[in-house]
Design brief:
There is one protein chain. The chain is an alpha/beta fold. The chain folds into 3 domains: 103 residues; 52 residues; 100 residues. Helix 5 crosses helix 6. The longest helix is centred in the C-terminal third of the chain and has 34 residues. The termini are far apart.
Amino acid sequence: MKKEVKVGLLALSAIAIFIWGIKYLQGQNLLTPSQTFYIRYDDVDLLKVASPVVVSGLEVGTVKDIYQDPENLKKIIVEITVDKNVRIPKDTEARLISTSLMGGKAIVLSFERDCSGDDCAQSGDFLTGKTVGFLPSMAGEKAGKSMEEVMAKLSVLLDSIQQQMDTGDKEVLQRGMEDISAPLANLNAASHTLNLMLANSRGDIESALDHTASVTEMLAQQRDAIAQTISHFNAISADLEKAGIGQEISELSNGLKNTMQNLDNALQQFNGLLADLQNGKGSLGLLLNDKELYENLNTTLRHAELLMQDLRLHPKRYTRVLSKKEQPYQAPTEDPGIGN
């Protein structure tokens, strides 16, 4: 083969690869069979060529072209290509949604039923177009409907306020605004106080977070050692259970529990006895609580002591049983009982 022919074939191959690459970057794969559908929109909201076409979250195609409707210049026609194996009903709704805060767009093919044969949309058919707002796109269809209801109620409220202002009942409206502004001012003050507290405690919070991170890191570093310790403890527990020590410890614990119960009962009885003594029950209680009885008993004991002392010092005085003559009492010179 001549050199010129090789160069020509190489150039044609490069051009073909270049064209295929351009189309691929535009979302069109020339090697994959596809079907084409058209959609009319009032506003495409900056939709771009190569934006994705999605069915139930699965990308099944791309936007091929966007142009004005020749028959109605206020309408925009969007041409999309969809994988040949994807079947969609003729009443499919093509919803133009926002995919991100940065302005990304996509077309979602929404339908409620399956299709087969002639009931499916054919390549070249027009699909019904619908533009979905930003909030419904981000929050979902149900949330979008709820938002629309809220906006409708808000519109009614604003109309009512405007009517009050037009009828001249401004004083009532002003009082209502003041009642609303007072809680808002309190909320603002509370928010400011909270910000000051957070600013003043920022160092403590950061220190606490640092300590928590340090403890977490230490636990992570010691994870293997902790796991090994737990394993050893489990092994020791198993050995103790096999040796029967656990049962002996249980019996010892039960015996100690019974002993403590008996001791508690004895202490309760002793407390009861002390309470009876304090309340004057029994002879000992009377002796402890009756001052007069105590003094009489003390005097009697003192007299008995003196009598025994006199009997020891003067025994003859108590041995004259048959004598009728009464002996005069002579006090001893050293009587330990006198003066005491």
